Amino acid sequence: MTMLNRLFIILIFSFSVMSVQAETEIGQTVFARGITMAESLRGEIRVLSSDSKIYEGDTLTTGEKSFVVLEFNDGTRMSLRPNTIFQLEQFKLENNKADVRLFTGGLRASTGTISQKNPDGFKLHVKNTTGNVGLGTQTPAYQLQLSANSAAKPTTSTWTVASDRRLKENIKPYKGGLSDVLEITPVWFTYNGKAGMPKDTGVGVIAQDLQRIA
Predict the structure, then answer these.
(1) If 97 and its partner were Cys, which of 16, 46, 66, 121 is the partner (CB 3.0–4.6 Å)?
(2) How many CB atoms lie within 10 A of CB 45?
(3) Domain match, 87 and 173 both
(4) How many domains does the chain have?
(5) Does residue 14 belong to any structural domain of this protein?
(6) Distance between CA atoms of 214 and 202, rounded to whole angstroms?
């Protein structure tokens, strides 16, 4: 082997080592079924199987009837549903920061130490405008559904609701009067758990009863 060939091999090896070092390993796959792939920031595509490594910057794709379960270095666990495109844009365990993006498809997640140490540090960006998001529930029936009656805003208590006049048109007086209002019967109830609702007890009205009165 000539000196030139040896130098060429050394350069190739050095470049490969630098490329591997440039990628930060952030977790691995726990389980994979069907067609599941990862594309690195350099455009290199890898087929994922159980115990495959995943790196910061990877874009993960699942095919039809395929899914993959991921476990990250901070203990975060995610399951990607079929036909999902998901990017691990940033995952900094040392800084307690993570940015991930869901372009299409769906996922379930239970967060780890990053969100525990820095609740504002773990951010999930949903690019697809369809579908539902659930916090604390795996079967959300609404665009955003919480598992408990718990919500807060850091600097204001103002919320936008559908009763706002600015959201309505063709407003006309309701002529039913007090007699109709008196027919409204508040009731105590317990949610039955359908549609992902928690089995809490509360007081309110039944929508079908209001429809009958109106």
Answers:
(1) 121
(2) 10
(3) no
(4) 2
(5) no
(6) 23
- 11 part of a folded domain: no
The residues with which 114 forms a beta bridge, in sequence order, are: none
Tokens of 1: 């082997």
Domain assignment present for 13: no
Establish if 151 belongs to a structural domain.
no
Same domain, 31 and 135: yes
Residue 88's CB is within 10 A of a number of other CB atoms, namely: 23
pTM listed for this prediction: 0.59
Contact 128, 104 (CB under 8 A): yes
Same domain? For 175 and 112 the reply is no
Separation of alpha carbons 96 and 14, rounded Å: 31
Counting as low any pLDDT under 70, the low residues of the chain are: 1-22, 128-130, 138, 153-164, 195-198, 214
**Do 111 and 76 meet the contact criterion of CB atoms below 8 Å apart?**
yes
If asked whether residues 134 and 71 sit together in one domain, one would say yes
| pLDDT, tens digit, 9 for 90 and up, residues 154-196 | 666 666 666 667 777 888 887 777 788 888 888 898 888 776 6
